[in-house]
Amino acid sequence: MQIGSSNDSAAVKAQYATPKGLDIRMTFHDKYSTNKLGYGPWIVSNYDIREGMKVLELGCGTGSMWLGHDDLVARCGRLVLTDLSEGMLATAKGNLGERGNVEYKIADIQNIPFEDSSFDVVIANAMLYHVPDLNKGILEVRRVLKEGGTFYCGTMGENNFTDVLAEWFRLGGEEFNPNHNFTMQNGTEKLHAAFKDVTPLIYDDSLHITDTEDLVTYLRSLTSFKAVLDLPEQTIRDILTEHTSDGAIDLPKEYGMFVCR
C-alpha cells in the first residue's frame, strides 16, 4: 500500500524498516475499508495449502497474514517466512513465536537462498512492485517451486485512491510517480515469463473515511509521499476537508491477487 516513487529504494527501505508505519496503514485500512472481510483474510481464503506442504513467504512483513490461522500454519510441513527487513522479521517472530515447523530468514526474492523445487507454495504479497529486477525475481520463484506448485501474489491496481489523492494535492512529475511496476493490469503479462497458468482475482473494496485526522496520520506515515510530508498538517487537513461530503471522504481501492501454476 504505497504512494510515491517506484525508484526511490531509500524511501522504500525507510518506509518498511520498522513495523510502526505499516501498523498505522494496516489499522487505517481495517477501520475504513467498506469490504469488512479484509484484504488479508481474503487473500488467505484463496490459499490451497494441504497437509505437509512446504510453504515459502517472501516479504512476510509482520507475519500478520498468519495470525488467527493456527490451523493453516499447523498444516504446513515447513513454513519459511522471509523479509529483507530484520525489524519486520523480528516482529513476525514475536507475533507467531517459535514453532517446530516455522523458520524465519532474511532473504531477497532476486536471489532466493533455497534449492530448486524446494516448495509446494510460494507467497509474495504487496511487494513485487518494489523488486528492482522483477523478471529475475519471478524466475527465482519458479525455480524454487516444485513442479505443479502454486505461486500466490497480491498487488494493487492502477486506479487507486493514491491517484485521487495526488490529484487533490496537485502532485505531478517527480512529486508523484506512482509505482506501476507490478499491478493487476500488467501482472499477468509479467508472470507469463515463468508461468503458463495465471489467474487474476479482484478484491472488491473502497474507503469510507469518517475521521479526517486518521487520513492525515496515514499520509504522514508514507515516507515516499514526500511532497505531502513537507506540507504543514493544517494545510493537509484543509485540502482533505474540501473533499469531505456528508462527514466522510470516499476513495476508490483496487486490489487483487494472482494465482500462478
Q: Helix and strand layout, with pairings?
A:
Elements: H1 9-15, H2 19-32, H3 39-45, E1 54-58, H4 70-75, E2 78-83, H5 86-96, E3 102-106, E4 119-124, H6 134-144, E5 145-156, H7 161-168, H8 187-191, E6 198-209, H9 212-220, H10 226-229, H11 233-242, E7 249-260
Parallel strand pairs: 1-2, 1-4, 2-3, 4-5
Antiparallel strand pairs: 5-7, 6-7
Helix pairs in contact: 2-9
Structural summary, described in words:
It is a single chain. 35% of the residues lie in helices and 22% in strands. With 261 residues, the protein is of the alpha/beta class. It has one domain: Vaccinia Virus protein VP39 (Rossmann fold), CATH 3.40.50.150. It has a 7-stranded mixed β-sheet with strand order 3-2-1-4-5-7-6. β4, α6 (134-144) and β5 (145-156) form a beta-alpha-beta unit. The radius of gyration is 18 Å and the shape is globular. The model is unreliable at 1-9 (pLDDT under 50).
- Contiguous low-pLDDT stretches (5 residues minimum) are 1-9
Largest sheet: 7 strands, mixed
What is the CATH homology-level superfamily? Answer: Vaccinia Virus protein VP39
Mean pLDDT: 90
Provide the number of structural domains.
Answer: 1
| Percentage beta strand | 15-25%
Query: Based on DSSP secondary structure assignment, what is the total number of beta strands?
Result: 7
CATH architecture: 3-Layer(aba) Sandwich
| Helical residue percent band | 25-40%
Q: What is the straight-line distance between the termini?
A: 25 Å
Work out the radius of gyration.
18 Å
CATH class equals Alpha Beta
Task: Record the strand order, biggest sheet.
Answer: 3-2-1-4-5-7-6
Number of helices: 11
Question: What structural class do you assign from the helix and strand content?
Answer: alpha/beta
